[in-house]
Amino acid sequence: METPEVVVSDEEQARRRQALSELIEVMRPAVQADGGDLVLVDADLAAGVVEVQLQGACSSCAISSATLQGGVERILRGRLPWVTEVIGSLDEEADPAVGVALGRGGYVPRR
Q1: Starting at the edge strand that comes first in sequence, how are the strands of the sheet with 85-90 ordered?
Q2: Model pTM score
């Protein structure tokens, strides 16, 4: 059985994007303090699917999946009721040796 497509007004999509961006910005300092960064990659605002990426030291960290699921996903789904799924990825270009060398707080986010 196919799930019906959810229609969300332009105004609601703008509200959702703003709330999502603001929440990501609130979470980023905690990730940056550990030498990484959290970046919003994409969001299907109607379906509630959000894709984020861990960068820097966090992309090579052994507990990155726990950070994505236990931290980022929990916070996004808990504070934004329209979020149905959080997809997390890691910065594939990151060099694990560089991530370790950056250590806590050493990562400077790309802009």
Answers
A1: 36-44, 49-56, 85-90
A2: 0.75
